Amino acid sequence: MTKGWMSQLVGVVLTQRKELLIALVTAILGTVATLLVPIFEAAFVDSLGSHHEQVGWLIALIGLAIAAFGLAFLRRFFGGRLALGVQHYLRTRIFNHLQRIDFAAHDTLQTGQLVSEANADVSLIQGLLAFLPRLFGNALLALLSLVVMAVVYWPLALLVALSLVLIGAASIRLRKQIFPVSLIAQQEKGAVNEVVEETVRGIAVVKGSALEDVQLDRLHQRATRLYRARVATIWRQAKLQAFLQLVPLLTEALVIGIGGYAAINGHLSIGAFLLFTTYIVELILPVRQLSVLVALSEQARAGVERIFGLLDINPAIIQPENPYLPIQVRGAIEFSDVHFAYKPGVAVLDGLSLKVEPGETIAVVGSSGSGKSSLALLIPRFYEPQTGTIAIDDVPVNQWDLGTLRQSVGIVFEESFLFSDSVRANIALGRSDVSDDEIMSAARSARAHEFIEALPQGYDTVVGERGVRLSGGQRQRIALARALVGSPPILILDDATSSVDPSTEAEILDAIGAIGGGRTMILIAHRRSTLHLADRIVLMDQGRIIATGTHKELLAAEPLYAELMSGETESIAEAPKISLVEEGSLTETHQEASLTIPRLIDRPVELGWVDERFRFGSLFKLIRIGVIVGAVLVALDALLSLASPLVLRSGIDAGVLHHTRSLVLEAALALGAVSLLDLFVVILEQVIAGLAAEKFLLLLRSRIFQKILRLDMDYYESEMSGRIMTRMISDVDAFSNLVQNGLITALVSVVSFGLVLVTVLIIAPSIALVLVASLPLTIIASVIFQRYSNRAYTLARERIAAVNANFQEQVSGVRASRAKNRGREAINQFDSLSSGYRDARMNAQKAISIYFPFLLMLADVTTALTLLFGGSQVLHHTLAVGTLLAATLYVNQFFSPIQQLSQTFDQFQQARVAARQIRRLMARDISIHPAEQPVELKNIHGVVSFRNVTFQYPQAEFPSLDAVSFDVAAGNRVAFVGETGAGKSTIAKLLVRFYDPTAGSIHIDGVSLTDLDLISYRRQVAYLPQEPFLFTGTIAENISFVRPKVSTAEIERACRMVGLDGFLNHHDEGVDYEIGDRGVRLSAGQKQSVVLARLIIQDPTIVILDEVSSSLDLVAEAQMQTALDQVLAGRTTFVIAHRLSTLLKADQIYVLSHGAIVEQGTHADLIGQGGEYASLWELSA
C-alpha cells in the first residue's frame, strides 16, 4: 500500500465532512461544558454559607446540563451519521471496485473473504468511528483539565500529566502487540466465512454423500484458529486494561496524599480538592475504554489494510483515453500472434493467429484445456493478452469503447449463471430499454418460450439463486436467450447446449442457424452436432491452431480431429488454466505473527455434533464456570471502584479538617493498596470473562453451522445463500463485536450502578433519596426508548441480510453482469440496499441520540440537587463536607455507567436482534425426518425400487414425477433420458432423499428409504450433480474431501484414471496444485475430471451421475467412460444424460416425458422400437 492505514482512513472519513465538522464542534463545546461542571461544583462547595452565591452556581449547573444535552444530541446524531456513512461508503466502494476489476483479479479472490471484508471489517471501522467524537472530546477534556488543574495547583497537575504520559506510552507499546494477532483473527474470520460459503454452495454434494462430518471438521479447525487468535488478543488486551486502570487509581491516591497535605497547609481548598478528584474520576472511564479502543483500533486497522489491499488492485483492463465508437459493426475478428497466460510462464495461447470474416460461423474444437474458452474470453476483452493483438473490424479491441465492445459481443459462458430474479429480468440483464417482444423473441430463438410460459408466473417467475428452481437445461436456454437479446453482431457460444437434451439441442441449433445470417458466430464445440452450423472448423491443441477446414477435410487430414470425433484415444496432454495473480498476495501479511498464549489459558474446546434442541441457555451452561468466576471478578472490580470516594471522605473528614497528616497518608496508602489489588482483579476478570465469551462464540458458530448442515434442500432452494450466511457472519459478528468491544467494562459499570446506590444509602440516606427520585424518569425513558429502538434494529437486521445476499450473488455472477454491461445497474441496486440499511440504523441512532443525553442531563441535574440538599445539611452540621464530596462523586459514578452503556448499547441491540434471528433459524423444522427406529444397512447391495412414485415440488403447479415405477438390480447401470424438465434430476434428488415422494415409496435392498439410517445410507452413495462442486484448496484436498485419510498415491492413481495426469505433469505442484475459489484455475472439463476422481476415491455402492461429462470433449469423455467402466463395475449406477453416446453400456434406459416413463429397454431395444429414444438418438448422431 502506498499510504499508511491511518491516512487512508482519514481520507475516507473526509468524505463525510459535514458530519465530521458538526460532530467535532459539538464534541468540543460539550467538552467545555463537561470541563466547567467540576469548576462550578468546586465553587458551590467553597461558597457554602453564602446563599446568594449557592443559588447562582446551582442555576449555572442546571443551565450547563441543558446545554450539554443539546450538544450531546448533536454529537451523537452526527457522529452516528459519520460512522454509518463511512460504513456505507466503504461497503459500496468495495462492491463498485469488484464490478470494475478484471476477471484475472477476480480469479485470485475468495468469496468468503470478500463477504467478511464487506461486513465484519467495515463494521469494525464503523465501530471505531462511532467512538471518534467522544475520543476527541476525551482527549480535549484531558488537555483542558490539565490546564485548569495547573492554574489551581500545578504540582498535582504535573502528577496527573505524568500519569497520562504513562498511559499513552503503555498503549502504544501494547498496541504493537495487539495488531498482528488482530489481523490474524480477521483473516481467520474470513476463512470461517469461506467454509460456510462453500458448504452452502455445495450443499447438494455435502448432503448427498453424507459429508457433513467433513465440513463440520473443516469449520471447527478454522473456528478454533479464530478462537486462539482471539484468546491471544484477550491476553494482550487484559494486561493493557489492568495497567490503564491502575495508573488513574494510583494517581488519585497520590492526589489524596499530596493534595491533603496541601489543603492542611492552606494551599488547596476543599472545593479544589473536589475539582481534582472529579477530573480524575471523569478520566477513569475514558481510560477504561482506552484498552477497548486500542483493541478496536487495531482490529479496524487490520480491516482497513485488508479493504485497501483489495481496493489497491488496479484493473488491468480499462477504458481507452479516446475510445473507438463504431457506426456499424461488421463482425470481422482477427487474432495476430496472440500469446496469453493466466500465470507467467505457463502458456494457454501460444502464438495464435486466426481470421474470422464478417458473418462467418466457425467452430473451435480441441481437448479440454486446449485454450478454446480462453480464445473466446479475449474477444470481449475480459482478459488481456501478454503479446499480440485481437481486432474487430481491423480495430484492436483495446482501443474500443468497452461498453460498445461488450454490447457487440453476445457470449454464453460454459457455466450459465442466473440471478435470483424473474425470468424476464434475467433475459433482459443489463438492457433496461429492451421490450417484452424482444425478450420473448430471444426466448423463442433459445427454445425457452414454451417452458417459460408453463412456469407458475410465466416470465415473472423468480428462478431462485443461480436459477436453482430450474433444470440445468432450462438455465442454459435462458442464458442463451440473454445473449441473443439486442441481436449482437458477434455471438460466442461456449458449449451453450451441454445441459439440454438432443431434441431441444436440435431445435436450438436450427434456431441459431436461422438467426445467424449476417452474424459472426464462434462456437466452442464439444458435440459433433454443433459442427454442421460452422462454415469452418478450427482445431486447437495446447494453445495453438494446428488446422482449419471443413469437417470432411479435417477428418481426412488430422488424426487428432479424427480422435476427437471418434472418442477413441489415449491420454491427451492438456494446457493448464491458471490465475495471473498469485493466490495469497492479499492475505499473507503478518501471518507469521506469534499466537503465543500462556499455557494456563491455552485450553482446547471440545467440539462435536449436538442433538439437543438449541437454547442460548444451554450454551451458557457450557461456560458456566467462566461466567460465574467472571461475574464474581466483575463484582469485585466494581466494589473496588467504590473505594476512592470513601477514602477521599475519610481523608477529608478525619485528616484534612482535623489537620491530621497521618490519616491523610493512611488514606492515600489504602487507595494505593486497593489499586494494586484491582490490577490483579482486572487481569483475571478480562482473561476469564473473555475466555468464556470467546468459547461461547466458538460454540455458537458450531451450533449454527450444524443447523445449516441439517436443513433440508427445499430451504436452500428457496433461500438465498447470502441470507443463510448472514446468520453465520453478521449475526455472530454482532455477538462478537459486543463481546470484544466493551461488554466487560459495561458489566462493571452496571454492577457499580447498584453498589453505588447501596453505598450512598449507607453513608448519606437523605442524598440517596435524590438518586431514588431520579429512577422513575430513567425507567419511563428507558421503556419508550426500548420499544422504538427495537423496531429500528429489527428492520436493520432484515436489511443487512438483503445486503449480504445481494453482495454474494453479485460477486458470484460478476462475469454474467460484466458481459452484459450491467455494472452500473448492479452498483445502483446494491447502493440502494446498503442505503436502506444505513437509514434503518440511523432511525435507531436518533433514539440513542435523545435517550442517552437525556439520562446524562438527568445525572447533572441530580448532581446539582445533591449539592443543594447536601450543602444545606453541611451548613446545619448534619452532614460532613467529606461525606458530601464522596456522595457527589458517587452520584457521578451512579450515572457514569450510562456513558459506557451508550457506547455498547448499539452493539447490544444488534446482538439482541441477531439472537432473535438465530433462534428463528435454529427453530426451523425439517421435513426429512430420520426414522424413529432406523435400519442401518452397513453394506448396501444396491437393489433399488421405485413404486408408483409421485412428486411435486413446493409451490409447483404440476408434479415433476407422476406414478413412476421401476426396479434396478444390484450392480446394474440404468439411464434416464428425456427433454429438459422431464423429471430426470428429480429422480436423483429422491434417490439421495433430498425430498420424500408426495406419494408412493422408494426401497433400497427391500427396505423403505424413509426407514433407513440416512447418514449410513448416504455414505454409500455418490451424488454428482450437473454443476461440479469444488472448494478453495488443492486438487488433492478436493479429491480427498470424501476420504480425508486417503494416500497421495491413491489420489494420483485416480487422477490418471480420469485423464488429469497430462495436466498435472505441467506443474511441479502435482496434486498439490491450488485451484482457486470455485476451481477458477481449471477449465470446465478439468473441474469435472476432479469430481470424478473424487468419486473413485469415495468407492460408493450406488452412484448417481447427473450429466457429469457434459463439459468434456469427445476424447476426454471417451477416456472418462473408460475410467467409469472400471469404477462403476459392480455398482448400481444411475446416469442422467443428454449425450446418448454415454448410454450404450446401460443395462436399462428409461425415457421420461412430463414426469412419466414412456419407454424403457436397452439401447438396441429402444432403437428397434423406433420411438422417442430412437428420434433422440438420430438427432444426437
Automatic annotation (TrEMBL):
Keywords: ATP-binding, Cell membrane, Hydrolase, Membrane, Nucleotide-binding, Transmembrane, Transmembrane helix, Transport. InterPro entries: AAA+_ATPase (IPR003593), ABC1_TM_dom (IPR011527), ABC1_TM_sf (IPR036640), ABC_transporter-like_ATP-bd (IPR003439), ABC_transporter-like_CS (IPR017871), P-loop_NTPase (IPR027417), Type_1_exporter (IPR039421). Residues 21-299, 628-910 form the ABC transmembrane type-1 domain. It is found in: Cell membrane. Residues 333-567, 944-1179 form the ABC transporter domain. Its EC number is 3.6.3.-. This is Putative multidrug export ATP-binding/permease protein. It comes from Ferrimicrobium acidiphilum DSM 19497.
